[in-house]
Amino acid sequence: MSDIAMPSNPYRLPLIATFFLIIWVMDFHASMLGLGDISHYDEFLTLDRSTSFAAQNDWWNTYTAHKVNFNKPPLQYWMSGWLIEQGVDLTIALRAPSFMFGGLTLIGAGLFAFALFPKVPWTVPVTVLFVASSDRFWGASTMALLDVGSLFFLTMTFATIHLALRAPLWWYAVALSIGLGALQKAPIAFGFATIYLVSLGLTGRWHGHRFWTFISNRHFLASLALALVLVSSWYLLQFIQHGSTALQQAVGREIVGRLAPSSASGQVRDLREVLSHMFGAEGAVRLFGLIAAFWLPFRLRRYDLLPIPLVLLFYAVVISFSDGFISHRYTLLFTTMTAVMLAGAIFAFSWSIQARILTILLISLFSGGPTKPPSELELMRESRVTKQIEVLSSVAKTLDTERRLFVCNWHTKERFSPGNISYYGSNGRLFVQVRNVHDLPSVFRSGTTSSALEGLCRSEDLAILRPFITDLQILSRDDPYVHFYASVRELSD
Q1: What per-residue confidence (pLDDT) applies to 219?
Q2: Nearest Cα to 377, choosing from 100, 44, 35?
Q3: Cβ neighbours, 10 Å, residue 154
Q4: Which residue ranges in the chain fall short of pLDDT 70?
Q5: Which of 51, 237, 271, 429 has minimal CB crowding within 10 Å?
Q6: What pTM was computed for the model?
Q7: C-beta separation of 330 from 322 below 8 A
Q8: HEC assignment per residue over 209-224
Q9: C-alpha–C-alpha distance, residues 351 and 40, integer Å
């Protein structure tokens, strides 16, 4: 790999280029934070959880639909909640943490490139450019979601691992990245770092970083203890407050339940599905980046790079057999890995400066370039979601305090987010939502509905509810929704 920078000061021009690139793309997208409104299904969960701290007067638990919820830790929700308390515009307060993590990810991507290719300074701005060319990166950075925060902490974990192999004090930065990442969404960085270090140790005979080189280091051991304390802190606090139920939901259902292999052969994803998931409709950077990840270690004989393709391969195997829902958004985690390996691959060829520049620009432009118009970022609310908010707000104004709100929520393509119902329609009270029509008998038998309920359903749902309700009274119609009162029938066993 050759260096195209000035020999006397090889990092000066690359760092200047990186600085102005980050300033440019962040400034361009910053104006979009106030455009439109939150509209994504999970953004309403962020809204509900971020506003619940003040509403419940409790900053040590996260709440969904006015009940303590253990699905996600609170770090990003705390940030939005604090901004809301300071009087920041609601939409901006919810999006600002994601945008901040997006900017930090660009810096982390540059650090990652420096850690992997310290003798090739121009990989730093090229890596940042490739990350900034990702549609999903900016989509996550301008919406009130947790994904880009996870990407930042994972990027910093991988970057600081490589720095720690040369300067062991960096192990403490690894621990902080892992620990804070676990408080932001889930112990994703911890899991990936474990795979990364195991891969590094298993391939140590080819690059010298054997298990013993870091396991025997006192800074590694101290940072490992720090990481374990940070990763377990939130789960321990929830266990102390709420017992084993917290761990069953946070660990058993959210982590193990998603990734555990399925016992049904029909659940196994075929190769086409896995590849489609891995490529993620991300254009040239993702496709060529994945190819570069598997090719570059052998091209350069840099076998210390093998953990990156092995991590990607491990993820592909896990999702092939996992029983739970694996969102396409999870592949955002690959963004910096594929970008840095693609940048390294371009400088692995003995090309002229002009050929490299042309290749870099073509890849970036083919991916849409580093600046994305609002129309590509889903910032504007769909009419369907606007309608839902209008109907829920109308229901909230007349909600009967003696009746529990009941929402028919089994229409998959037009489903209400529970955060949407909670924030706009529930008036701070518990409600019942039925997400599967087959659950209706058990819901009505369980007593979770009051004997007199207030319902919000689509017009065609009333026929489905007839066996379970009586004394139907229509309060208002706002096509396709119906707001009604009813009494609950007594069901025989």
Answers
A1: 97
A2: 35
A3: 30
A4: 1-8, 262-268, 280-281, 283, 324, 447-448, 491-493
A5: 271
A6: 0.92
A7: no
A8: CCHHHHHCCHHHHHHH
A9: 44
Position 77: which residue type? Y
In which residue are the tokens 């021009």 written?
13
Q: How many Å apart are CA 189 and CA 203, to the nearest integer?
A: 21
CA distances in angstroms from 471 to 432, 452, 479, 488, listed in the order given:
19, 10, 22, 9
Q: Are 262 and 268 in contact (CB under 8 A)?
A: yes
User: C-alpha dihedral over 241, 445, 426, 460, to 10 degrees?
Assistant: 140
- Please report, for residues 252, 456, 468, the alpha-carbon distance to residue 86 in angstroms, rounded to integers and kept in the order given: 36, 34, 46
pLDDT in tens, 7-21: 567 889 999 999 999
Place of tokens 């009813």: 486
Burial 268-284, CB ≥16 within 10 A → b, else e:
ebeeeebeebbebebbb
Q: Token digits for 433?
A: 């939502």
CA distance 406 to 426: 10
Contact 147, 140 (CB under 8 A): yes
Q: Which of 302, 66, 324, 342 lies closest to 207 in space, CA to CA?
A: 302
**N-to-C CA span, the chain:** 74
**Which residues lie across from 407 on neighbouring strands?**
433, 456
258 strand-pairing partners: none
- CA 347 to CA 120: how far, in whole Å? 8
The answer to whether residues 285 and 133 touch, using CB atoms and an 8 Å cutoff, is: yes
Side chain identity at residue 55, one-letter code: A
Which residue's entry shows tokens 């139920």? 245
CA-based Rg of the chain, rounded to a whole angstrom?
25
Q: Which of 147, 156, 139 is nearest to 76 (CA)?
A: 147
Work out the burial of residue 87: count CB atoms within 10 Å of its CB; fewer than 13 is exposed, 13-18 middle, 19 or more buried: exposed
Report residue 48 as tokens: 């509900």
Question: In this structure, what token pair is assigned to residue 159?
Answer: 């970057």
What is the C-alpha separation between 471 and 464, in angstroms, rounded? 15
Residues 6+ apart with CB under 8 A from 280: 136, 286, 328, 331, 332, 334
Q: Residue 277 in contact with residue 286, Cβ under 8 Å? A: no
Dump pLDDT digits (tens) for 413-462. 888 999 999 999 998 888 999 999 998 988 888 766 777 889 999 999 99
In angstroms, rounded to a whole number, what is the distance separating the alpha carbons of residues 490 and 303? 69
Q: Quick one: which of 100, 96, 93, 87 has its CA closest to 50?
A: 93
Whose CA is closest to 123, among 369, 360, 364, 370? 360
User: What SS3 state is found at 447?
Assistant: coil
CB 331, CB 216: distance < 8 Å: no
